[in-house]
Amino acid sequence: MARLPVHPFVLAADPGTGGAFVQFLPFILIFGIFYFLLILPQQRQRKKVQEMLGNLKTGDRVITSGGVYGTIVGFRDASVVQLQVAQQVRIDVARSAITGLQPTGSEAAQAEGAGKGKK
Questions:
Q1: Integer Cα distance of 102 and 1 in angstroms
Q2: What is the pTM of this model?
Q3: For the chain: N or C, fewer Cβ within 10 A?
Q4: pLDDT tier at 42 (50, 70, 90 boundaries)?
Q5: Which residues of 54-85 are buried (b: 16+ CB within 10 A; e: fewer)?
């Protein structure tokens, strides 16, 4: 069996000379992709929800995480909101349980009008 000639240059190459940065480059790129696709949008959403919870006022129509629709009629303290869910029916819920605002009559009409204009 014949032997292939081996150049001295190939024998002198050290497999560990790629450097630490080159070895970690794929991990850095994957972290960057995760940051921009998952972490950053989640932080923006959390900031938006915290801003919405901080700007709640009496008369706002809201929905809770349990699916209860109601109108804010008062605040017990910084973390408890009193909702009116029906005439003569009021419940206390945690401020953090409020997941969104419901549009008022005029806002709903504007949104509906804008939706019809796109068709």
A1: 83
A2: 0.62
A3: N
A4: very high
A5: eeeeeebbbebeeeeebebeeeeeeeebbbee
